[in-house]
Inverse folding.
Protein backbone atom coordinates (compact mmCIF):
# COMPACT_ATOMS: atom_id res chain seq x y z
CA UNK A 1 0.00 0.00 0.00
CA UNK A 2 1.16 3.42 -0.80
CA UNK A 3 2.21 5.70 2.06
CA UNK A 4 -0.65 8.14 1.29
CA UNK A 5 -3.19 5.46 2.26
CA UNK A 6 -1.41 4.84 5.58
CA UNK A 7 -1.43 8.57 6.29
CA UNK A 8 -5.14 8.84 5.52
CA UNK A 9 -5.90 5.84 7.74
CA UNK A 10 -3.83 7.31 10.55
CA UNK A 11 -5.63 10.64 10.07
CA UNK A 12 -9.06 8.96 10.13
CA UNK A 13 -8.06 6.90 13.22
CA UNK A 14 -6.76 10.05 14.95
CA UNK A 15 -9.98 11.97 14.14
CA UNK A 16 -12.10 9.03 15.39
CA UNK A 17 -10.07 8.92 18.62
CA UNK A 18 -10.45 12.71 19.13
CA UNK A 19 -14.19 12.41 18.45
CA UNK A 20 -14.55 9.55 20.99
CA UNK A 21 -12.61 11.52 23.64
CA UNK A 22 -14.74 14.63 22.98
CA UNK A 23 -17.96 12.58 23.34
CA UNK A 24 -16.74 11.06 26.62
CA UNK A 25 -15.84 14.51 27.99
CA UNK A 26 -19.21 15.94 26.91
CA UNK A 27 -21.04 13.01 28.51
CA UNK A 28 -19.10 13.43 31.75
CA UNK A 29 -19.83 17.17 31.74
CA UNK A 30 -23.56 16.47 31.60
CA UNK A 31 -23.68 13.52 34.00
CA UNK A 32 -20.88 14.02 36.53
CA UNK A 33 -21.96 16.53 39.23
CA UNK A 34 -19.79 19.60 39.31
CA UNK A 35 -17.46 18.42 36.49
CA UNK A 36 -18.13 21.26 34.08
CA UNK A 37 -19.76 23.78 36.40
CA UNK A 38 -18.36 27.16 37.10
CA UNK A 39 -17.89 28.28 40.72
CA UNK A 40 -21.02 30.50 40.48
CA UNK A 41 -23.41 27.86 41.81
CA UNK A 42 -22.17 27.00 45.27
CA UNK A 43 -23.87 24.64 47.66
CA UNK A 44 -25.97 26.58 50.19
CA UNK A 45 -24.55 26.80 53.68
CA UNK A 46 -26.52 24.76 56.21
CA UNK A 47 -28.84 26.89 58.32
CA UNK A 48 -28.37 26.99 62.05
CA UNK A 49 -31.39 27.18 64.32
CA UNK A 50 -30.79 28.61 67.75
CA UNK A 51 -33.51 27.81 70.24
CA UNK A 52 -33.75 29.69 73.49
CA UNK A 53 -34.41 27.84 76.71
CA UNK A 54 -38.11 27.72 77.57
CA UNK A 55 -39.28 30.58 79.72
CA UNK A 56 -39.40 29.79 83.41
CA UNK A 57 -40.91 31.86 86.21
CA UNK A 58 -38.72 33.87 88.52
CA UNK A 59 -41.28 33.55 91.34
CA UNK A 60 -42.32 30.53 93.31
CA UNK A 61 -46.01 29.67 92.85
CA UNK A 62 -48.30 30.03 95.86
CA UNK A 63 -49.72 27.00 97.65
CA UNK A 64 -52.94 25.55 96.25
CA UNK A 65 -56.16 26.02 98.16
CA UNK A 66 -58.21 23.37 96.31
CA UNK A 67 -57.43 19.67 96.41
CA UNK A 68 -59.79 18.09 93.84
CA UNK A 69 -58.17 16.16 90.97
CA UNK A 70 -59.35 18.82 88.49
CA UNK A 71 -57.91 21.66 90.59
CA UNK A 72 -54.62 19.81 91.03
CA UNK A 73 -54.41 19.26 87.24
CA UNK A 74 -54.34 23.03 86.70
CA UNK A 75 -50.70 24.15 86.39
CA UNK A 76 -48.82 26.13 89.02
CA UNK A 77 -46.65 27.73 86.31
CA UNK A 78 -47.19 28.57 82.65
CA UNK A 79 -44.25 29.86 80.61
CA UNK A 80 -42.67 32.56 82.81
CA UNK A 81 -45.85 33.09 84.84
CA UNK A 82 -46.30 31.67 88.34
CA UNK A 83 -49.56 31.10 90.20
CA UNK A 84 -50.17 34.10 92.49
CA UNK A 85 -53.66 33.16 93.71
CA UNK A 86 -56.33 30.54 93.20
CA UNK A 87 -59.86 30.46 94.50
CA UNK A 88 -63.04 28.54 93.86
CA UNK A 89 -65.59 30.60 91.96
CA UNK A 90 -69.33 30.35 91.49
CA UNK A 91 -69.14 32.20 88.18
CA UNK A 92 -69.97 29.10 86.13
CA UNK A 93 -72.12 27.21 88.65
CA UNK A 94 -75.34 28.49 87.05
CA UNK A 95 -74.06 27.12 83.71
CA UNK A 96 -73.80 23.64 85.25
CA UNK A 97 -70.12 23.47 86.18
CA UNK A 98 -69.27 20.81 88.75
CA UNK A 99 -66.41 23.00 89.96
CA UNK A 100 -64.68 26.17 88.79
CA UNK A 101 -61.57 28.06 89.84
CA UNK A 102 -60.10 31.48 89.16
CA UNK A 103 -56.32 31.39 88.93
CA UNK A 104 -54.13 34.47 88.63
CA UNK A 105 -50.68 34.03 87.08
CA UNK A 106 -48.00 36.76 87.04
CA UNK A 107 -44.34 37.21 86.16
CA UNK A 108 -43.65 39.53 89.10
CA UNK A 109 -45.11 41.10 92.20
CA UNK A 110 -44.86 44.76 91.24
CA UNK A 111 -47.43 46.98 89.47
CA UNK A 112 -45.79 46.49 86.06
CA UNK A 113 -45.99 42.70 86.19
CA UNK A 114 -47.68 40.81 83.38
CA UNK A 115 -50.83 39.19 84.76
CA UNK A 116 -53.09 36.56 83.19
CA UNK A 117 -56.32 35.44 84.85
CA UNK A 118 -57.59 31.95 84.01
CA UNK A 119 -61.06 30.73 84.93
CA UNK A 120 -61.29 26.96 84.61
CA UNK A 121 -64.38 24.83 85.04
CA UNK A 122 -65.32 21.19 84.67
CA UNK A 123 -68.69 19.88 83.45
CA UNK A 124 -70.18 16.38 83.75
CA UNK A 125 -70.09 15.65 79.98
CA UNK A 126 -68.35 17.03 76.90
CA UNK A 127 -71.75 18.06 75.48
CA UNK A 128 -72.55 20.15 78.57
CA UNK A 129 -69.09 21.73 78.41
CA UNK A 130 -69.66 22.57 74.74
CA UNK A 131 -73.02 24.16 75.56
CA UNK A 132 -71.43 26.24 78.34
CA UNK A 133 -68.52 27.35 76.12
CA UNK A 134 -70.95 28.34 73.37
CA UNK A 135 -73.01 30.37 75.88
CA UNK A 136 -69.85 32.14 77.10
CA UNK A 137 -69.12 33.28 73.55
CA UNK A 138 -72.63 34.50 72.68
CA UNK A 139 -72.61 37.99 71.22
CA UNK A 140 -68.81 38.32 70.91
CA UNK A 141 -66.88 38.88 67.70
CA UNK A 142 -63.94 36.43 67.65
CA UNK A 143 -60.66 37.39 66.01
CA UNK A 144 -59.82 33.71 65.44
CA UNK A 145 -61.48 30.37 66.02
CA UNK A 146 -59.89 26.93 65.65
CA UNK A 147 -60.14 23.32 66.77
CA UNK A 148 -58.39 21.95 69.87
CA UNK A 149 -56.74 18.67 68.88
CA UNK A 150 -55.15 16.00 71.03
CA UNK A 151 -53.31 13.20 69.27
CA UNK A 152 -54.81 14.28 65.94
CA UNK A 153 -58.39 14.08 67.27
CA UNK A 154 -60.57 17.17 67.69
CA UNK A 155 -61.63 17.49 71.35
CA UNK A 156 -62.85 21.08 71.47
CA UNK A 157 -62.53 24.60 70.14
CA UNK A 158 -60.47 27.69 70.90
CA UNK A 159 -61.69 31.25 70.32
CA UNK A 160 -59.67 34.47 70.66
CA UNK A 161 -61.63 37.65 71.34
CA UNK A 162 -59.82 41.02 71.33
CA UNK A 163 -60.45 43.24 74.33
CA UNK A 164 -59.75 46.82 75.35
CA UNK A 165 -56.32 48.40 75.83
CA UNK A 166 -54.28 45.59 74.21
CA UNK A 167 -55.96 42.78 76.13
CA UNK A 168 -57.58 39.65 74.74
CA UNK A 169 -59.55 36.68 76.01
CA UNK A 170 -58.89 33.14 74.85
CA UNK A 171 -61.68 30.65 75.57
CA UNK A 172 -61.17 26.96 74.89
CA UNK A 173 -62.89 23.67 75.56
CA UNK A 174 -61.03 20.40 75.96
CA UNK A 175 -63.39 17.50 76.64
CA UNK A 176 -65.31 18.32 79.84
CA UNK A 177 -63.15 21.33 80.75
CA UNK A 178 -63.79 24.93 79.71
CA UNK A 179 -61.04 27.49 80.28
CA UNK A 180 -60.87 31.23 79.74
CA UNK A 181 -57.60 33.21 79.90
CA UNK A 182 -57.67 37.02 79.98
CA UNK A 183 -54.61 39.25 79.81
CA UNK A 184 -52.26 41.03 77.40
CA UNK A 185 -53.09 39.96 73.82
CA UNK A 186 -49.48 39.03 73.04
CA UNK A 187 -49.33 36.74 76.09
CA UNK A 188 -52.71 34.97 76.39
CA UNK A 189 -52.39 33.03 73.12
CA UNK A 190 -48.99 31.75 74.26
CA UNK A 191 -50.51 30.85 77.63
CA UNK A 192 -53.25 28.88 75.84
CA UNK A 193 -50.65 27.07 73.69
CA UNK A 194 -48.55 26.16 76.75
CA UNK A 195 -51.47 25.32 79.07
CA UNK A 196 -51.54 21.55 79.64
CA UNK A 197 -55.33 21.25 79.36
Amino acid sequence: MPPAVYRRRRLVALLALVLVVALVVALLALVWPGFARSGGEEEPAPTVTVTADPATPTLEPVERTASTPFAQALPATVLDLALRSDAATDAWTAAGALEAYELVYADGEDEGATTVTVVAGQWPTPQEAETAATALLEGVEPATQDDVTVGGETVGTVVVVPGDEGEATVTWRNGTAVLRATGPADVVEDVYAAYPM
